[in-house]
Amino acid sequence: MKTNIALLWVLTAYFFALAAIYTIWSLIDSGAVEWVGSLAIVLSGALTIFIAFYLQVQLRNQGGDLPEDRLDAEIDEGDPEIGFYSPWSWWPIMLAGGAAVAFLGLAVGYWVSLYAVPFILIGIVGWTYEYYRGYFAR
Does residue 76 register a pLDDT over 70? Predict the structure, then answer.
């Protein structure tokens, strides 16, 4: 995490220096500030500040180095139990199809999203209750 924090602070300095160069260059080229590009680069620098600060606070609150920061760390130290996932489940595919149709509705028209609602609901219910019936029932 220390490497990520250092990298983000370097990116912050880079974005702010780039914003100054871009603004000066646009003044020299056209005689006016090109606000969209200048503001976008400054806001990119602000975003890297937010992320770097957050990671620094999290590192300090954890009270020490993470396993990926230590040279003597074992692989098992950085591999926590994340959870249980169904290896043969088809329900995530149905849920992803419903989400795809819902996002298609954003591009085509809201009425297309209405066709996605049953697929999403059936996918969520099926994925939630797949271990309560059938071959893998508990």
Answer: yes
Task: Note whether residue 56 is domain-resident.
Answer: yes
Asked whether residue 12 carries a pLDDT value surpassing 90, the answer given is: yes
What letter would DSSP give residue 48? H
Pick from 83, 86, 113, 87: nearest CA to 101: 113
- Amino acid residing at 82: I
Last residue of a domain, one of 78, 101, 118: 78
Written as one string, the DSSP assignment of 15-30 is HHHHHHHHHHHHHHHH
Q: Specify the 3-state DSSP secondary structure of 92.
A: helix
Domain shared by 16 and 71, yes or no: yes
Q: Rounded distance, CA 18 to CA 113, Å?
A: 42
Of the pLDDT bands very low, low, confident and very high (cuts 50, 70, 90), residue 133 is confident
Torsional class of 35: left (φ above 0), alpha (ψ -120 to 50), beta (otherwise): alpha
Alpha helices in the chain, H assignment, sequence order: 2-30, 35-62, 91-108, 110-128
CA distances, 83 to each of 56, 86, 134 (Å): 27, 10, 22
